[in-house]
Amino acid sequence: MNFIRSFYINNVFFRYISVLAGCFVLSYWIKFLYPIAWLLTLLLIGLFLFDVFLLYATGTGIKAERKLPKKLSNSDINPIKIFFETRYGFKTHVSIIDELPVQFQKRDFNFESSIIKGDKKQFDYEVRPVDRGEYVFGNLIVFASSPLRIVKRKFMFQKDQMVPVYPSIIQMQQYDFLAISNRLSSVGLKKIRKIGHTQEFEQIKEYVQGDDIRTLNWKATAKQSQLMVNQYQDEKSQPVYSIIDTGRVMKMPFNELKLLDYAINSCLAFSNVTLKRNDKTGLIAFSKNIETYVPAIQKITHLNTILEKLYNIGNSFTDSDFGLLYGHIKRKITHRSLLLLYTNFEHISALKRQLPYLLALSKKHMLVVIFFENSELEKLISTDAENIQAIYHKSIAEKFSLDKKLMQKELEKYGIQTVLTKPEELTIKAINKYLEIKARGLL
């Protein structure tokens, strides 16, 4: 049975058969072709049996291995490596098929190459998952053929390899290096002018050109007989919570990724930055119920807890209960904290329904409401209308876009900080708002 399951006939063999059939047909009129056709048939049968012997004389003629990372990063390009080698004594033609997880919906994977004995080759390809969860890779299938290319033998390796897809670890690492080197003002993050001295005192140091002369410490200057200045740092160990709305408004997809996953990826990178800047970070996910609550803690190892919780967050089809969120925060978060609320409002009436709860939260905490521009509408607005129907569509799109700006103005009127952003710019703008609030001492 193993022989039958691994035995396949190459397409080249059927081309030989068609040539032989043509010879037999022509021999009806050209008589001398008849014995030649039979000789070619016997030769083909001999080559067929010889090719079978070449491929099956060696027990395990091909070795192959798929190398997967321990975790795949959602919405990012993830490299997959395949290593293969041959034990056949001849040049082997291989065709590799990797059974990708069903989430990718890709059924045309095929890689062809040739390899000689003692040689080891590597084939790399990339995948981009757009959903969190478990991804199961099926069989790694290799078809081997001899130089005759009449028969091919099937080899199967590594059935059902599971790898989890976590929130964007790659994006988190990108901002991690910037936080360590204190270079978060790069990659599009704007520099914030610091107002006053709301920061904690750190040390007294020698004056160097560029220091603020308003921070001169005259007593220390008199003692040292040289200019000395006070150095300040941002206040540390302040609680910061990322609050993610998991209701139906966050199910809208952009570039194959749901708004919820954009928020989760941003939350992971943002939490890492706050921890590196010595603040406490926590997490709340809610819709009809409070699905996840992680108290704010200032430990680097706390990031693993947040990562696991973000991995398990699901999307619901219900309207989110902001009243329940307010009650939970009132009971659980007693100290003034920075609250970054990831949600979305498509119409100003939806905002006004939740506005009383947002105002109540902003009285005790520093609330930042983050919601999304509809980038598909922006594309429609930027295109020229060529007919009446296109004019209608463009007018409606402009109205929806204006509503978003009106919602932002409405929140700012009540002193609530806002971030209106395109989904792909969410992480940059969330971190930027955090740096602005810290620099201005609003928390």
TrEMBL record:
<protein>
    <submittedName>
        <fullName>DUF58 domain-containing protein</fullName>
    </submittedName>
</protein>
<keyword id="KW-0812">Transmembrane</keyword>
<keyword id="KW-0472">Membrane</keyword>
<keyword id="KW-1133">Transmembrane helix</keyword>
<dbReference type="InterPro" id="IPR002881">
    <property type="entry name" value="DUF58"/>
</dbReference>
<feature type="domain" description="DUF58">
    <location>
        <begin position="204"/>
        <end position="368"/>
    </location>
</feature>
<feature type="transmembrane region" description="Helical">
    <location>
        <begin position="12"/>
        <end position="30"/>
    </location>
</feature>
<feature type="transmembrane region" description="Helical">
    <location>
        <begin position="36"/>
        <end position="57"/>
    </location>
</feature>
<dbReference type="Pfam" id="PF01882">
    <property type="entry name" value="DUF58"/>
</dbReference>
